[in-house]
Structure formats: structure tokens, C-alpha cells
Amino acid sequence: MSEETGDIQVLIDLMARLPGLGPRSARRAVLQLIKKRGQLLIPLADAMQTVGATARECLNCGNIGTTDICKICENDKRANGQICVVEDVADLWAMERSGVFHGRYHVLGGTLSALDAIGPEELRIPRLIDRMTAENVSEVILAMSATIDGQTTAHYIADQLPNLKVTSLAQGVPVGGELDYLDDGTITAALNARRAL
Amino acid sequence: MPGRHLASISLRHFRSHRRVDAEFDGRPVAIFGANGAGKTNLIEAISMLSPGRGLRRATSEELIRRPENFGWKVTAEIAGHSLETTAEPGGARQVRIDSKLGPQIALAKVARILWLIPAMDRLWIEGADGRRRFLDRAVLSLDPSHGEAVLTYEKAMRERNRLLKDMVRDAHWYTALERTMADAGRRITAGRQATLDALMAAQAGAETVFPAADLSLTHADQPSEDLAEALAASRPRDLAAGRSLVGPHRSDLQAVWKAKGVDAKDCSTGEQKALLISLILANGRALAAQMGEAPILLLDEVAAHLDADRRAALYDEICGLGAQAFMTGTGPELFAELGPRAQHFEVVEAEMQSEVRHAG
Fold first, then answer.
1. Looking at the predicted structure, is the pLDDT value of residue A118 above 60?
2. What is the pairing mode between strands B296-299 and B324-329?
3. Are residues A109 and A76 in the same domain?
4. Which residues of chain A make contact with B177, given a CB cutoff of 8 A?
5. Inter-chain residue contact B175 with A159, CB threshold 8 Å
6. I need a surface site. Which of B117, B139, B280, B321 has the fewest CB within 10 A?
7. How does pLDDT run across B116-135, given as a tens digit for each residue?
8. Hey, how many other C-beta atoms are within 10 angstroms of the C-beta on A85?
9. Contact A112/B180, CB-based, under 8 Å?
10. Tens of pLDDT along A29-53?
């Protein structure tokens, strides 16, 4: 294998470690990048270098941006008294894509798991408690996964905020979903959370 | 009443069986053969069509045929559904229902399988673990959602036990986990109690030669009815022990021979076996009443400790129930009373592998 091929293989191996890509798709992506060197490869390398130098976690909420305090936390219009607590930045981005939430966020960085040695200190939970008074929060919306760890984390946070309105996302039939395709747990949750029309 | 029967099964490299393909018509199945021929291995393969580790509680690795070490595969057809469960060497067991990958727990909705094996003869005199497993399998047969409650409870308990072992003293963390344990624990206990009620009702309404039992659930060291409260109160003791000492994982099944008023553990060996058979049959009747279909029964060496009259009565009751019971025994004479009411298969060992032959 030549020196050049070795470098390309390093790139392929690195790409294959990204979520959603395997060795085959990484090879195809790298080939495409090389074929479109001017339009893709060089701009991508530049963008990655820039992001590598500037990307950082928001010191307030844990969101990822290029400044110490992210744009959402800096925006006074988002200080409506609501904080949505999510596990990961990807969850925050999903909420933002929907465009329906106009408050601020708090990214925990995972869920409590004694077996994986992930405790409150590893999850920015103390920082969340501090924000309650500092930001005059009136409602905390827990948008955690419907897993045992997600729900344990939600209960843990709710327990720490006894004098505050704490809500969680509803669980049930997804918009556009058909009952026939839902699992029993989802149908049970939906039935338990039914509401009058 | 026709049951949800096993129509066919194929085994590949499963314990002593290199390759087996068999078809069944819903009648009881008598399987005979010499000791070590592979009869129990065959019904163990059927037990792998339900959630868990099967009737011997074996790991996937232990089920691999040696010396080939290729991994194993069991495929079957039950009530129009194709089931496949398989494991590669060193890999986890996988389940496919109608060609779709799914969790093991989904098997409980397709196949209702109960078993009785010689190792359970000591069920009433050994630890509570075995009795809980026996009861939980009965609950699962009547309510497939029981498996999910048990998994949720066990996961939360493992987390709590780790906190206890690490001497973590964060009360909020304990409270959060105990809430999950209490919620799942309530469902587990309710499911167990409902199953005991269903079993006793099924025994009461049946014409059977097997003894009826009074069944009850006991809860070790649980000072409060409210499990969340009991867990919170138990924290100091649990911290000292490094594990959770209250909850449904400590419950026990108690049985009393109704007519004699004798505790199951004080009954003779034969009487204890009769009680177990009675419960398995009651479970079948309860399922038939609830679902309109009898379960698949795996009865290993069930005829060995029964006299001819009891044996004939057992066969009559199985046929009356409409259950597809797979029964093993060393010789065909043990199944003579069944005659054409059953399918008969012989398992023989030849050239270092088991062979299954249709015998009528």
C-alpha cells in the first residue's frame, strides 16, 4: 500500500467510526469527497478545522456552540420562565427543529446509571438546580427518554425541585401513527394519558 | 379444545442434535428412548421458544453442539407464526418472529409453554428462587406483560444494589429508583396473586385425580404494604447487606395439600410431584378458560414416578384439556395408555448424534 493510500485509509477508518457509517459507507463517502475535492473535501476540511477550534459547550446549559454562552441562553426572549431538560444536544436540536418551544434548555449529558458510574455530578444536575433561582424559572419540562434510566433521572430531578412546577412530555400515539403498529407499552401509556375531546 | 400447537420444529446443532426436522398435528407427543439419547434436549429446544433460558436454565453457549461449535438454531411454526431463535458462539441469543428481529419477551405472546422436569421434584423443599421462577412462568403464560414488569423491576433493583454496594447515600437517587421498583413490584405482585387465584379456581372446578392445593404468596421482611415505603425504611439494613432485602424478589410461593392440610414441603416425594402436576394441569385449564386455548406442556420423565392408574389419569386429563404435551420416557410401554391419541417418536443416539424417528 502506497503512502497516499495509507492516508486515505486513515480517513476511511476515522469516517467509519462516525454514527450511521460503516466501513463500506465510509469508503463511498471518502471516494466522493476525493472526486469533489474543490466543492466538498477542502470546504469540509476547513469547516472541521474551524469547528475543531471554536466548538465548546455552553457554560450555562451544556448546548454546543462556538461561544462560552450559547445563542439560546443569550437571547432574552427565550427567558420565559420555562426550562426544558434534555439528555443530549441531539435532543435539544430535535426540539428546536420543531419550533414549538420558546424557552431555554438544560442538557444533562446522559442519564443516571449507577451501573455505569454516572451520577448527578456527571450530569450537570447541580448546575440545573442553581439555574432555578438565578433565572427565575417557573416550570421545568422534563423531556427524557421513556427508558428506566430516563425515568429514574426524571424522578430524581423532580424530587430535587419540590416547590416548582415540573412537567414531562406526554407518552403515546405519535402524530401520523397507526395503532396497529404500536407496541403494547405505548398503547397502554396512550390509554392511561387519554383526554376528553 | 384445540390448542395453539407447535406444528413443526427444526433443530440445527442444538446439544446432541445435529439436524432434526419434525412435524406435529396438535395431539400430545410421546417421546421415548434410552437414557442420554437426547429426549430432554429435544424438549429443551422447544422451551427455547419462550422467553428466558429454557427448562435447564442453560446459557446459549451450553446449548452449542460440540465439537463443531457452529452455534445453534431452533426454528418452529406455532399458530401460523414462524419463530426462530439462534445463537452464534460467544454471541447473544437472537429471536425472530415472522422473520422480524424482536426481544425474547415477545415470544410469550406467541407461544404459551409450561414445563415440568425432574429437577423440579425438589421445588417445595429447596430455596424460594425455584418456586418464584415456577410461579412467574405460570403468570407469564396468563399475562405476557408480566415479563416486562419483571425486567423493569430487576433493572431498577440492580441499579439500587450498585448504589448500596458503593455506599452511596443520595436519598433522591434511592427514591427515584424505589419509585420504579414499587410501580413494577406492584404489577408483579398483583400478577402473581391473580395467577394463584386463577390456579385455585381451576383446581376447584376440575374433575381430577391430582390433589388440589391452597396457594399463597408470602413476603419476606416487608414491614409495609407500600413497597416504596418499605424500601425507603429498609435502606439502613440494605446498606449494611449491600443488596435489597425487601420486594417481590424475596416473595415465596407456599402450597398446602388442601384435603390433608399438610404443607407441600412436608409431603412425600410422590405427593410433592402430584402437587406439581396438579398445578401444571390447573395452569393449562386456567389458560384454556381465559384464552380459549391450552398451552404447550413439556413434561420430562413425568411418567416415571406415577403408577399405571395415575399415569392413565394424567393422559386422560391432558387429552381432555386439548393440550399438546410433549412427554418423555425411557420406553414406549410408558405411553401405551395413550395409543393413537398421541404421536409417538423415538430418540436414538447414532454416530455421536441424536436421531428423532417417527414411531406411530
1. yes
2. parallel
3. yes
4. 152
5. yes
6. B117
7. 999 999 999 999 999 999 99
8. 25
9. no
10. 999 999 999 999 999 999 999 999 9
Q: How many CB atoms lie within 10 A of CB B126?
A: 13
CB pair distance less than 8 Å for A152 and B177? yes
The residue range of the domain holding A96 is 64-196
Assigned domain for A59 exists: no
Task: Give the per-residue pLDDT at B254.
Answer: 94
- In this complex, do B160 and A114 lie within 8 Å of one another by their Cβ atoms? yes
Q: Spell out which chain B residues touch chain A, with contact meaning CB-CB distance below 8 angstroms.
A: 145, 148, 152, 155-156, 158-160, 162-163, 166, 168, 170, 172-173, 175-177, 179-180
pLDDT at B306 over 90: no
ipTM topping 0.85: no
Is pLDDT at A4 greater than 80 in this prediction? no
Can you give the pTM of this predicted structure? 0.83
Least CB-CB distance to B145: which of A149, A160, A184?
Answer: A184
What is the rounded distance in angstroms from the CA atom of residue B72 to the CA atom of residue A135? 59
Closest partner residue to B159 (CB to CB) among A114, A154, A155 is: A114
pLDDT of residue B89: 92
Contact between chains at A113 and B173 (C-beta distance less than 8 A):
no
Task: Give the pLDDT confidence score for residue B5 in this predicted structure.
Answer: 92
Residue B189 has pLDDT above 70, yes or no: yes
* Topology of the domain covering B1-111+295-360: Rossmann fold (3.40.50)
Domain B121-290, CATH among 3.30.950.10, 1.20.120.160, 1.20.1050.90, 1.20.58.1610? 1.20.1050.90
Q: Which residues in chain A touch residue B163, judged by CB atoms under 8 angstroms apart?
A: 114
| pLDDT confidence of residue B224 | 66
C-alpha cell of residue B127: 430455596
When computed from its CA atoms, the radius of gyration of chain A, rounded to whole angstroms, is 21
pLDDT for the residue A181 = 85
For residues A56-69, give the mean pLDDT: 95
Sheet strands side by side (includes B343-350): B113-116, B296-299, B324-329, B29-32, B343-350, B353-358
C-alpha B242/C-alpha B161 separation (Å) is 6
Residue among B145, B175, B180 whose CB faces A148 most closely: B180
Cα distance between residue A70 and residue A182, in whole Å? 38
Shared-domain flag, residues A50 and A116 = no
| Residue B124, CA distances (Å) to A33, B77, B129, B208, B253 in order | 69, 35, 11, 21, 9
